[in-house]
Amino acid sequence: MSNxxxxxxxxxxxxxxxxxxxxxxxxxIGKPGQGFDWRLVVVYRGRHCPMCTxxxxxxxxxxxxxxxIKVDLIAVSGDSKAQLESHxxxxxxxxxxxxxxxxxxMKALGAYISDxxxxxxxxxxxxxxxxxxxxxxxxxxxxxxxxxxxxxxxxATLTRGLGWxxxxxxxxxxxxxxx
Length: 179
Prior knowledge:
Layout: E1 18-20, E2 26-28, E3 38-43, H1 50-59, H2 63-68, E4 71-76, H3 81-87, E5 97-98, H4 103-109, E6 113-114, E7 126-127, E8 130-134, E9 140-145, H5 155-166
Parallel strand pairs: 3-4, 4-5
Antiparallel strand pairs: 1-2, 3-8, 6-7, 8-9
């Protein structure tokens, strides 16, 4: 069947994907900002998904803990600028969101892609939730890809785990390297 997606494997280089943010800048989503050495990329379905709104708002509570371990954060979706602007009214976030993730970029990330159930839901194919942690070498340290909005990593567990992984005394390798 030709519609199987290719998944990003642990240890692989994260693809170069540049997207705009509402402040008018274009960011390379896998590259951490200044003062950070790792990047957490959260792919969400879009404005139409109430579970995504809830997850993004919960993520706000973990930004300081992520900063403490030098993990930068960005969320991305296939929504348009207008859809993201509309969504901001129900978001209480303190991290950047990029928009305009194309179907080809979704495929490059290995995200599952869905069509809307109706025009009222949204007007474009969208990525199902995915999460990538990119290390200082630009490689995928952690990956979690879901095919529906009901399965997502627990943020407290993820944040604690990243702190443990990044502690040099634990000498924790990238896991899942056998394909």
